[in-house]
Amino acid sequence: xxxxxxxxxxxxxxxxxxxxxxxxxxxxxxxxxxxxxxxxxxxxxxxxxxxxxxxxxxxxxxxxxxxxxxxxxxxxxxxxxxxxxxxxxxxxxxxxxxxxxxxxxxxxxxxxxxxxxxxxxxxxxxxxxxxxxxxxxxxxxxxxxxxxxxxxxxxxxxxxxxxxxxxxxxxxxxxxxxxxxxxxxxxxxxxxxxxxxxxxxxxxxxxxxxxxxxxxxxxxxxxxxxxxxxxxxxxxxxxxxxxxxxxxxxxxxxxxxxxxxxxxxxxxxxxxxxxxxxxxxxxxxxxxxxxxxxxxxxxxxxxxxxxxxxxxxxxxxxxxxxxxxxxxxxxxxxxxxxxxxxxxxxxxxxxxxxx
Length: 355
Hints:
Low-confidence stretches: none
CATH topology of the largest domain: FAD/NAD(P)-binding domain
Radius of gyration: 23 Å
Distance between the termini: 43 Å
Structural class: alpha/beta
Number of domains: 2
Number of helices: 8
Mean pLDDT: 89
Shape: elongated
Strand content: 25-35%
Strand order of the largest sheet: 6-3-2-10-23
Number of strands: 24
CATH architecture of the largest domain: 3-Layer(bba) Sandwich
CATH class of the largest domain: Alpha Beta
């Protein structure tokens, strides 16, 4: 079997209706906006995602998180943003395949790509846009055995899917990045108490979040423990977390905190899976792309968090920009001799079949 970078394999006789212009790998925000951008250019799309629902990491881990840096929204709950992106993409009737992982992509003759999946399905596409985010991911926790044994039923959380589960509870949050501070701010008016535990004295979060955190601490509404790390937990007769013991990094002093909900927000371990075997150029765990968002493989583009280029900032809004640029450059690849048209939908409206 030819790989994606080798000589193209012979193309079977494929019915035109089985071929799409773009196959999008990943149904997160960047992937969904790729579908919309493609629809504006009247390009047919197929979307494949290993998750059971669209939205990627936002849906899986942060459905109730409030986002403040999406243009046009002073603040928006992630699940509402995903719903809007899904509705926006649905105008162009993409073929969406969930619970299905792309395992291989190979080049065929006549600028065709063959996409095979974990369900033993084979799809054909004239181009591919990889919008796989950070790949398959699992949260880092301070004690994997403990989290497996207790789980959310017993108070050991790695994300907030339902804020009501934290209502009137004593919450201990482990971490010092954006997510940890975001949920301190998001739960302070919901929980009985919130304590933040971070192993460093400095936080790796947005300045405005750090300022808000310090203000809440000064008001006595949040307790901050730095530089402290997780040590152990105590459980009640039902096996539910009742307290968390933390240890000071320099003196080894231990402090016991009352706790009903321990929320570990220490980042993620990610796995790009089969993508690493596709002969793409990588920079750390991201795919290197040219200014047109194309990888080193003709007809294969990458957008969003998985795409790497100079001065890249990993934000939702840059993922949207990546998607627009990729589609603009997919057009002449898929339709040689044709340039993408700049469509201003506020003036020209959507194509008639999308209204």
